[in-house]
Specification:
Elements (H helix, E strand, L loop, with lengths): L14 H10 L6 H13 L6 H12 L7 H11 L5 H17 L5 H13 L5 H13 L6 H13 L5 H13 L7 H11 L5 H14 L5 H13 L5 H14 L5 H13 L5 H17 L3 H13 L7 H10 L5 H20 L6 H20 L3 H7 L6 H17 L9 H11 L1 E2 L1 H14 L8 H10 L7 H13 L7 H13 L5 H7 L2 H11 L4 H21 L10 H10 L6 H14 L24 E2 L2
Parallel strand pairs: 1-2
Helix pairs in contact: 2-4, 4-5, 4-6, 5-7, 6-7, 6-8, 8-10, 10-11, 10-12, 12-13, 12-14, 14-15, 14-16, 15-16, 16-17, 16-18, 18-19, 19-21, 22-24, 23-25, 24-26, 26-29
C-alpha cells in the first residue's frame, strides 16, 4: 500500500491499478490526505478516471469535514471534471464560507479557487470578488507566473476588476527589465501587453523581436495569441513568430493547431506555406478524431483557412457524428459549409451536391434536438456558441418556441444567462421577456448586483415594457442604487446608458458617473481593457452624456464630448453612407429640390442617423 507521505513519488497509475486501489484505499484517508492523493491523480491527468469519481463521491458525502481552504481548493481543482451542477454549487458555497472565516487567505488557496471556477466555466461573482479581495491583500507575494495565471483565469471568466488589473499592470511594468529569458518574457508579454499603454507596448514589441528566435513551441503559441489579442500591427513581429510556428507545427496538439490557425487568420498573416501545412495537419487530425466537439472545432478551423475546401474526408467525418452533436457543434458545421459553398461560387466552381445534402441533414438534426430538449440549463449551455447567419435564418424561430415551452424553468439562478441570450439574439418575444421581469421582481434580492445590466438591457434595446413595467424598472434601479460602489466603472456607464434608452435617469446614478473622481477612475480602467470594449464604453459614455444634457438639464451636467465627436467624424472619413444618401435624395424629392435638403449637418450634440438593428419578433 502507498503511504500518504510518499505521494510525490507515486508511479504513473494505469487502469491495472484501479481494482486494488479503488476497493479500499480512498475510504481509508482523512480529508487532508485525500486532497493530496487527489492532487497526485490530477497531476497525472486522470481528470475523469473512475478513481477520481470515487474521490468526488467521498467529498460529496463528507463536505462538512473539509477543514480549510487549502484542502478544499485542492479537492475542488482535482474533482472539477467529474462533478454535477448541484455538487459544484455546494462546493462554491463551502468555499465562500471558508473564505469568510479565513483571514488572511494564502495566495495559492485563492488562486486554486479561481482556477476551479475557470475549469467548470462558472463566473460566480460573489466568490470571485472574495477571492479578488484576498489577492489584493497578497499583491506583494504575486510574481509574474501567478499574475499571468490569474489574469488568464479572469479573462476566461470575463471578470474585470479595475483595482487588481491596475496593480498588476504597475507591478508587471516594473518587472520588465528583469525579464531577460524567453520563458519569463513570454509570460510577461502575455500578461502585460494587452493592457499596456502605447509606449510600453512598443518596448515589449522591440524586446520580443530581439528574443523571438529563442522561443520554444509553447512560448511561440503564447506570443502569437497575445499579438492577436492586442491587435498588434507590427508586421515584422507577426512574420517573425509565424516563421517560428512553421517549424513547430508538427509537435502541436490538435487544440494547439486550432489556436495557431485562429490567431494567424485574425491577424491576416501572409504566409502561404504556413497555411498549406496547417490545412494538411488539421485534416490528418480530423481523420482519426471521434469526439464530436473536437471534430466540429477542426472543421470550423479548416473553413477559416484561405483557399481551403470541403473534401470527402471532411464530409464523411461530419456526416458520421451528426446524431451525437449538440447545437453549437451543428452551428459550426453549418457555418463552415456555407463558407465553403460561397468560396466555390466566387471561384465559379460548379456547386457540389454534398453541400446541400449535408446542410439539410444538419438542419434536421438541429430541429430534432430542439424538439427533444427538456432542460433549459442544458439548452442554454448548447446555445453559447450557436449564433450567426445560419442560426438566425434556420433555427431562431424554433429555438424561441422551445424556450417558450421550457419557460417555467427560468429561475433566479439562470435568468441573467437567459437574458444575455436574448440580447445576443436581438429577439422580441414578449412571453419570455415577461417571465424575465416576473422572476426579477420576485427574486431581486437573490440576483447578484452586476446581473442588473443583463436584466435591463433586453427591455431597453428591444423597446418593450413588461407588465408592471414601472415596478420592474424601479426594482432594478433600487437594486443597483444600493450597490453603486460595488460596480466596475465601465459597467456603471453601460447601466446608465441602458436606463437612458428606457428613459430612466436616476439622479444618484447620473451624479455618480458625471463627477471628476469617477471619470478619472474610468479613464484608468479603460487603459487596461481590451480595445473593443474600451471603444464601446467611450461611445456609450458620450451617448449618455448627450441624453442627460437633453433630457435632464436640471442635473447641470456639462456637454464635454464635442472633441470626441469631431474625432469620430474624422475617423469615419466624413463621407455619406448609402442610407444617408438615400435619405438625402428622398428629402430633396419631397421638398421640391435637392438644394432644399442639406447633408452632413450636425446638431450641437452631434446627432446622426444610425442604421437600425434587425429585430426578429414573435409575440
Amino acid at each position: 500500500m502507498v503511504h500518504v507521505e510518499n505521494y510525490s513519488k507515486l508511479p504513473y497509475l494505469t487502469h491495472a491499478h484501479f481494482g486494488t486501489i479503488m476497493d479500499f484505499y480512498p475510504y481509508s484517508l482523512n480529508m487532508p490526505e485525500l486532497s493530496k492523493f487527489a492532487l497526485c491523480l490530477y497531476e497525472q491527468q486522470m481528470y475523469h478516471s473512475p478513481l477520481m469519481g470515487q474521490i468526488a463521491e467521498i467529498v460529496n458525502k463528507n463536505m462538512a469535514s473539509v477543514p480549510n481552504t487549502r484542502v478544499l481548493s485542492v479537492l475542488m481543482i482535482s474533482i472539477s471534471g467529474v462533478i454535477s451542477q448541484s455538487f459544484r454549487d455546494r462546493l462554491v458555497h463551502k468555499a465562500e464560507v471558508l473564505l469568510d472565516t479565513t483571514d488572511p487567505t494564502p495566495l495559492n488557496h485563492t488562486r486554486r479557487l479561481i482556477q476551479f471556477l475557470r475549469n467548470v466555466k462558472l463566473c460566480h461573482r460573489p466568490l470571485l470578488h472574495k477571492c479578488n479581495k484576498a489577492l489584493l491583500q497578497n499583491m506583494n507575494q504575486l510574481d509574474i507566473d501567478n499574475m499571468a495565471l490569474i489574469l488568464g483565469f479572469y479573462q476566461s471568466l470575463q471578470f474585470n476588476n479595475t483595482e487588481f488589473r491596475l496593480v498588476a499592470k504597475q507591478k508587471l511594468t516594473e518587472m520588465m527589465d528583469d525579464c531577460t529569458g524567453p520563458s519569463r518574457f513570454a509570460r510577461l508579454f502575455a500578461a502585460l501587453a494587452p493592457m499596456a499603454g502605447q509606449d510600453v507596448r512598443e518596448q515589449l514589441i522591440e524586446m520580443a523581436l530581439l528574443m523571438a528566435d529563442e522561443f520554444d513551441h509553447h512560448q511561440a503559441l503564447a506570443m502569437i495569441e497575445t499579438v492577436q489579442e492586442m491587435a498588434c500591427r507590427s508586421s515584422q513581429l507577426i512574420q517573425k513568430i509565424s516563421s517560428l510556428l512553421l517549424n513547430y507545427l508538427d509537435i502541436y496538439s490538435p487544440t494547439e493547431l486550432v489556436r495557431v490557425t485562429q490567431s494567424l487568420v485574425i491577424l491576416r498573416c501572409a504566409n502561404a506555406d504556413l497555411y498549406i501545412k496547417l490545412q494538411r495537419l488539421l485534416i490528418d487530425c480530423l481523420k482519426v478524431n471521434i469526439i464530436p466537439a473536437e471534430i466540429s472545432m477542426l472543421v470550423r478551423t479548416l473553413s477559416m483557412l484561405p483557399a481551403s475546401y470541403m473534401d470527402e474526408v471532411v464530409v464523411s467525418r461530419m456526416d458520421a457524428v451528426l446524431p451525437q452533436c449538440n447545437l453549437s457543434d451543428l452551428n459550426s458545421f453549418a457555418v463552415a459549409i456555407i463558407k465553403w459553398d460561397r468560396r466555390n461560387q466566387s471561384s465559379r466552381q460548379s456547386p457540389s451536391e454534398s453541400f446541400g445534402t449535408l446542410l439539410q441533414k444538419i438542419n434536421n438534426c438541429a430541429y430534432q434536438r430542439l424538439q427533444k430538449a427538456n432542460d433549459l440549463d442544458l439548452l442554454l449551455e448548447e446555445m453559447k456558441y450557436a449564433f450567426g447567419e445560419w442560426f438566425e435564418e434556420v433555427l431562431l424561430e424554433e429555438t424561441m418556441a422551445t424556450f417558450q415551452r421550457l419557460m417555467d424553468q427560468i429561475t433566479w439562478t439562470n435568468v441573467v444567462e437567459f437574458s444575455s441570450f436574448l440580447i445576443k439574439a436581438s429577439y422580441l418575444c414578449t412571453p419570455l421577456l415577461d417571465r424575465i421581469a416576473a422572476v426579477t421582481l420576485q427574486h431581486s434580492d437573490k440576483i447578484y448586483n452586476s446581473g442588473t445590466y443583463s436584466l435591463l438591457l433586453p427591455f431597453a434595446i428591444l423597446n418593450y415594457d413588461p407588465p408592471q413595467s414601472e415596478e420592474f424598472f424601479k426594482t432594478c434601479i433600487g437594486h443597483l442604487s444600493s450597490h453603486l460602489a460595488c460596480f466596475e466603472p465601465h459597467l456603471l456607464v453601460l447601466l446608465g446608458f441602458a436606463l437612458a434608452i428606457a428613459e430612466y435617469f436616476p439622479e444618484n446614478l447620473v451624479t455618480a458617473i458625471f463627477n471628476v473622481e469617477f471619470l478619472a477612475k474610468l479613464d484608468a480602467q479603460l487603459e487596461t481593457l481590451p480595445d473593443t470594449l474600451n471603444r464601446r464604453v467611450r461611445l456609450r459614455l458620450m451617448e449618455l452624456n448627450r441624453a442627460v444634457c437633453l433630457e435632464c438639464p436640471e442635473f447641470q451636467v456639462p456637454w464635454f464630448h464635442e472633441r470626441y465627436c469631431q474625432q469620430l467624424q474624422r475617423k469615419s472619413g466624413g463621407g455619406l453612407s448609402a442610407l444617408h444618401q438615400q435619405i438625402h435624395r428622398l428629402l430633396g424629392e419631397i421638398l421640391g429640390g435637392i438644394h432644399f435638403a442639406k447633408s452632413s449637418v450636425f446638431t450641437p450634440y452631434y446627432y446622426g442617423i444610425a442604421k437600425q438593428r434587425r429585430i426578429c419578433t414573435r409575440v
